[in-house]
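User: Please predict structures.

Assistant: First:
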Amino acid sequence: MEITGTNTAPEPGAAPDLDLDLVTVPARQGLEAVDIIRRAAGRSGQVGPVLHDGSGDTLGFLVPPGTADAWDLPGSACTQSDGRGMRFGDAVSPTAGATGWLLPPEAVGPVTDPEVLRAALGEAARLIEAADNCR
């Protein structure tokens, strides 16, 4: 499967259901990746909507449908929505201890390009390893 950066989610409210995949990663690596993508936004695209779990252990990046078919990055998982049709309005702003948006769709727009995410997650892992080895 060839993955390109052309798949984007419609504007919030434009389509009632979205068939998207979700890449989940440990929160520390995910936060680093968000920063990396945002710094490089002028060169390679922007970060899309990002969910966080209530415990703060993981982040989930919305990516184009079909990404899970070819996702194989160690330390992460990619799940298909299988046509269950996530609505952007389904995940509301988080309350204490709840799952919610770190970066809501209305604030960031399109989903994250899987190739950009893969590169950012790899760089984040290397940065974390280097920082941990300096202790």
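Second:
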Amino acid sequence: MMIYKTFLSAVLMASLTNCNANKNMSADSDKAKVETSAPSNNQKNTVYLNEGENKFLSEYQMNVTFKSISEDSRCPEGVQCVWAGIAVANVELMSTTSRPMTVQIATSDLKSKNLSKKVMFNGYEISLVQVSPNSTETKTAATLKGKYKIGLTFKKV
């Protein structure tokens, strides 16, 4: 009987320790979300666009239009997920010497769907560095349609 109580106490302590570790990991991942979603001052080449917005970027000699988010399977805030998920932005690019071209830029590379975080256009590597807002349990990707904002960086290659 004593061995049973000792074993039960050990299992209970291990469970509580594991639960506390998960809370700490969750808190750390929340901090990481906040840090990665906030615009960084050192990203002076980042351009922010609201869904449907069009901007002519004279320094890159191109017109950029954030058409839509075609997929947002990112893990909603307040939910524990096995996979972080992915968001895919449809962005129309046009240089002063080219026709418009719609590209898909994702928050992560996903070779199985032929998605990438970066695209090459007009001598620039364009990366998707931010998609906001994140979905929640009550605000799904469908209800956020038209309310998204993205951050794109441009790097001369």
